[in-house]
Design goal:
Layout lengths: L6 E8 L2 H17 L3 E6 L4 H9 L5 H9 L10 H11 L5 E8 L1 H17 L1 H4 L3 E9 L7 H6 L3 E4 L2 E4 H4 L9
Helix pairs in contact: 1-2, 1-3, 4-5
Length: about 180
């Protein structure tokens, strides 16, 4: 993985689509206000939940429109040809980019494998672009081995913000992968 200087990986865990939307919205609003481009690869759509929660937020109309303009619908596939076309589109005119991915561990692993392959093959195209991949895992899908997920990420996001994994899980030591 030669692209690591440009890529940061964050993980989050959710129990429902409302929980996911509630966890992501404060982070997304802050990033949008800083000019960060937000995009998604969703296995479970959250458009209804985002729309409902955004209507209750006390934010300016421009930021609301930008949040609602993000694609909150589900993506039909995460194969390499989709990822290739997707990445070519989202990196255009981007200096800072956040890609939100949700679903089961298996779905997220597949998307990340294809993203990493594309990134490795296109290091010249992402030079100078800071990309944060936010993998949001359905809690009901897995019951064990959370350490393997934490080991694949530098940061964790929850309803109170984004923090280094070690700060959220005292005693957690990153294992060599």
């Amino acid at each position: 993985m030669i692209f690591r200087n440009y890529i940061r990986k964050t993980c989050g865990f959710y129990v429902s689509e409302y929980h996911l939307a509630t966890m992501l919205l404060p982070h997304i609003v802050t990033k949008i206000e800083k000019g960060v481009k937000i995009d998604t690869i969703l296995n479970n759509k959250i458009k209804k939940e985002i729309k409902e929660l955004v209507s209750k937020l006390n934010i300016n109309d421009i930021t609301k429109a930008k949040v609602l303009n993000i694609n909150w619908e589900n993506t039909e596939e995460g194969d390499f040809s989709y990822i290739k076309d997707y990445m070519e589109k989202v990196i255009k005119n981007s200096n800072d980019l956040e890609i939100i991915i949700n679903g089961t561990k298996k779905e997220i692993d597949n998307i990340n494998k294809n993203l990493e392959y594309w990134l490795d093959m296109n290091i010249d195209k992402i030079e100078g672009i800071h990309i944060n991949i936010i993998n949001c895992y359905e809690v009901s899908e897995f019951n064990s081995n959370i350490n393997s997920i934490l080991n694949e990420h530098e940061y964790i996001i929850n309803t109170s913000g984004e923090y280094p994994v070690e700060a959220m899980f005292e005693g957690h030591r990153k294992q060599a992968i």
